[in-house]
Amino acid sequence: MSFLDHVVGSFSVGAADNPTVAMMDAAFATEQMPWRYVNCEVEPPHLDHAVAGAWAMGWQGFNCSMPHKQTVIPMLTSLSSSARICHAVNCVRRTADGWEGHNTDGIGFVHSVQDVAALIGGRVLVIGAGGAAYAIAVAAAEAGAAEILVAARTTAQCAALAELVNRNTDASATVVAWSQPLVPPPVDLIVNATPVGMHPGVDAALELDLSETTASDLVVADVVFNPADTAFLRRTREQGATTVDGTGMLVNQAAENIRLWTGATPDLPPMRRALEAALEL
Asked: Taking a C-beta distance cutoff of 8 angstroms, is the pair 89, 113 a contact?
């Protein structure tokens, strides 16, 4: 019998508000795995010490939240394709050669919508041009989407994201002119990749006019997970769209982190129940 558990965790600012630990603990308990997840408050000046300390203590990996997703990169030995393209890391795992950086935000999203949205050959509209939008656009392109459309208030940021997708993937990316309400061209999937509607601003919502598309064939997703059923999703569902909430992305991202660290594929329902209980959804 060994009393030495495998340790992973999270380095973030505002760690007390991070519900990831609830999902991880539920997954490890369900699978009866001798692993522990430690939520750590790490201010930016101390990130290098935290990373070195995790290595010295034999940690198997860690998550990074903002503001560490870019600044951690020089401390790593290698990057996955998605992390390199997005220039952002949210999951790090230990290898024989050093720390290896991954971006699991995008693949978590892809897994959350794959049962209801056909990505291969599809057209995807991503609303937003921040970190989540970058991860989702790249992951959707790598999953086989033929076209990525980008819409956001800042045209220059949209153009930069579209150019990055065109340069690094096989998908074609273009910018959609911003308006409120936004009238999207015919697409298969629309994603709100902004924090609009996140608690406590639960009444805020981006406005979509789906009259130019076939709403009955459309899937609309939100990255916001608290509340799960956002005003954005409710309004698009009233127009006939199928909706996917942000808890699925968060759970699938956490499951991908576990797979990278342990090699095991965890059971998702206990993780989702733990997340919902933690957030009182």
From this structure: no
